[in-house]
Amino acid sequence: MISQVFILSSQGDHLIYKDFRGEAGSDVVGVFYEKVTALTGDQPPVVLTLRDLHFIHVRQGGLYWVATATADSSPFTVIEFLNRFSALVKDYCGSLSEKSVQMNFALIYELLDEVVDYGYIQTTSSDVLKNFIQTEAVSSRPFSLFDLSNVGLFGAETQQNKVAPSSAATRPIQTSREQGGRSEIFVDVIERMSVVIGSNGVLMKADVEGEIKVKCYMTSCSEMRIGLNEEFSIGKSQIRGYGAAVRVDECSFHQAVRLDEFDGNRILRLCPSQGEQTVMQYQLSDHLPSAPPFRLFPTIERDSGGRLLMYLKLRCDLPPKSAAINVCATIPVPKGSVSLSQELSSPDQSSELKLQNRAIDWTIPRFPGGTQLSALFKLEVSGLSPSSMLEVGPVGLVFELPQITVTGLQIRFLRLSPVQPGPSQRWVRYVTHSDSYIIRL
Fold first, then answer.
1. Cis preceding-peptide flag for 418 (omega within 30 of 0)
2. 261-266 contacts: CB < 8 A, separation 24 or more?
3. Cα gap 100→117, rounded to integer Å
4. Phi, psi at residue 145, to the nearest 5°?
5. This prediction's pTM
6. What gap in Å lies between CA 33 and CA 222, rounded to an integer?
7. DSSP annotation of 46
8. Counting beta carbons within 10 angstroms of the beta carbon of residue 389, is it exposed (0 to 12), middle (13 to 18) or buried (19 or more)?
9. Quick one: which of 365, 426, 372 has its CA closest to 400?
10. pLDDT of 91-142, one tens digit each?
């Protein structure tokens, strides 16, 4: 049973507050923020307790989504509710941010009234709620098919070789046609890779976690069929087709997915509901079908003036027509580091010494495949010694790979039945993120 639900910004501002049972005062909002910010570490515990009241929270979109409950409530149920409610708000508001919550506070209060009744959870299904929600969402950024300002973030391609703007899938699901809404469906193949490369360049660990997400803006769609690679196989002993094998170790599906055509033709069938849902999740462990996307060649030494010199060459091993974006290399540096001077191989790069984190952030906005970039860092370190030089590294990389899946998973086709009346669009997008990419020095 839930007593209260509230949403806070990262600065502790009250955005949404709803008291269902009157068991605790509104001052608990400030109490929660004081407790959660007083804790050390990047990940505070999900459940905090004050006397007989439990604070259960998740972080989504840079916001605190908090519910208070008494001792007889299941924390796992409340955590699942908060995650589903934040996804519901994202579906109805288009995006999760402080601005979108402030602009759509009336809609969110209406959602809360329908989702929770006197502390008891009723439903979080967008299909059920669309019959009761009357408030129209206010988009923080108007949707336009002609807005291509951030195309590089996703690199979305259609079967007609067109590109979807990055804001296309971040609009409310209830946007009407008069407001610019279209009958569209998005299929996102998202992968996150965890890699550890040894100081000798040998790949020590490689794990990939992926998911296929569907976001539907169709007013009515009885069935959708998603065709995967015919060579897609699950497990090491299974080999299919005549092309290059696309293999994963484990795979799970949404309960609404029908698999009667999966074993023979690698086709997923489902009836998509409005909003976003994860259709399939998969994992590949201790293996990469291709070479890691980045290699680092470091040279670390001490110059005659007592400075620490780090010459780094970073190579992007993606195909020549591809590119990584938002690349950031974090290089831990020794204690006593005072100042930094650098020489970078291209003007669009930048670097900064973060004294608080004892690290250098080397930022590359766009890194084309088949190219190499370099940086020379000259670091002033007080009391530099041979042991201080051992404190350099390992290097951590953060990046995005648009239009690329590491496993090679692709969508062969996307078919809707019955055929949708009027103009409709189907978009398929691929992106790989670095979950943890570590290079030892």
1. yes
2. 261/225, 265/227, 265/230, 266/227, 266/228, 266/229, 266/230, 266/232, 266/240, 266/412
3. 25
4. -70, -15
5. 0.70
6. 45
7. S
8. middle
9. 365
10. 888 788 888 898 888 889 999 999 998 888 888 887 788 778 888 877 665 4
